[in-house]
Amino acid sequence: METVAEEPNEEIRGHAPAVEDEILPDHRCYIQFPFSILFSALLYCAEIVSAVYVFYVYRKNNDVYWMSFTIGFTIMGAVLDQLSLMFFHKDWTRYKYLMLIGHILLLGPVVRCLQNSIRYHQVLRRLDQVKKISQISIKRRKMIIEREIVHTLHGAFLQCKAFYYMSVIQTYLSSIPQLTLQLCITLTVRECPVERACLMAFSLVSITYGSVHCNILAMQIKYDNHFKLHTVQFICIMFWRCLEITSRIVTLVLFIASLKSRSLPFLLVTFSISLLAPWVEFWISRSHLPRKTIIDLKPMSIELVLTVITLLHAAIEFCCWSGVKLQLSNEEVVDKTHKGSNKAFHYSVRLVENVIMILVFKFTDRESLLNCCDTLIATQVIITYLLSIGFMLLFYQYLQPGWSSNLVPDQTEEINRNQSNVISTRESNQ
């Protein structure tokens, strides 16, 4: 997982040497630009632009039905992206009107990315200025630099986390419906023009990117951000999510293309169960809604925010395992226990659903949608979903982050030591 800054090595973190230049190393090597923010903004722009161009082509060809769904999914995802960035960034005191105009124009990710780039270069320039000052003491200079680095890390961490949530919302509320729609259109008209292929390609990249972030955020909720992902774990998650979501989308596309409008009742019932299950459990428990989770919002807005969270959770559960369980009676909203029975129930239900939809596709009386054997396609889809379950079991059995191996208590102790040094320095100066 990308980090914004790297921890200095032990030689730099040790006792200060006598030479002044050795105590001030080049801190540029410890501050890294968060390229995930830049990639998220570019992916957002690419998907929006390609969707608008496809909308223009459908409008030119008078395809009102496909045109409406294409622009509808695009606008819904873009608006929810703006709301997610506005919710996670509590910075309305500075750059208020600029940020508001950017979000109104649906350019919030671009404005946030530019803001983060400007702050990054401002901090580097500030560090260079502090290094050249000779009137202050060495300890004071070191304290100012550490304060600048900590401030930069904190702001970049909030930026990255907000963009992580934005990528998840973009994936499950816009990209997956968009890709499913365009694949259904491709199967119906038996052609795939370049503009539609570009839109599907960007949607697929967005789905892969957001699904991996969904896993990372679920583990951050469980371990309170105190974990690290190794390369093997990241590769396992990527294979698991790609196989699971790809097989699910292909199953939905074949099912919808086979029954067309007759498939809507089955899909609506399936989605409604995932959407209403947390609220039914909340009503049965006869508890009250959490009040400490959403601090900056008025009490009347709590129900609205919880409804959006439930909608996002239902969209994730409809496509793949979310990694968390909503518990609306809990102050933290989510249940961190990660019971194995929840995963087993989810994958059992989804496997049965996929088999039913594949059987409907196989035995429905219609002209063949594909130019190859339908039985072979149906078998490959089911095997792909079973392979995703295998990667999921491999991850949770052998590669799941644990407190003993992947946590970094040394860094936590170092941060606490630096904070205590800053406090003692302030007291001595007073």
Automatic annotation (TrEMBL):
Pfam families reported for this sequence: XK-related
Keyword Transmembrane helix: yes
Subcellular location: Membrane
Entry keywords, A to Z: Membrane, Transmembrane, Transmembrane helix
Chief location: membrane
Topology relative to the membrane: Multi-pass membrane protein
GO CC, one annotated term: plasma membrane
Entry similarity comment: Belongs to the XK family.
Source organism, top-level taxon: Eukaryota
Keyword field contains Transmembrane: yes
Native species: Pipistrellus kuhlii (Kuhl's pipistrelle)
InterPro entries, alphabetized: XK-rel, XK-related_adapter
Designated name of the protein: XK-related protein
Transmembrane segments: 37-58, 64-88, 95-111, 199-219, 231-257, 263-284, 304-324, 376-399
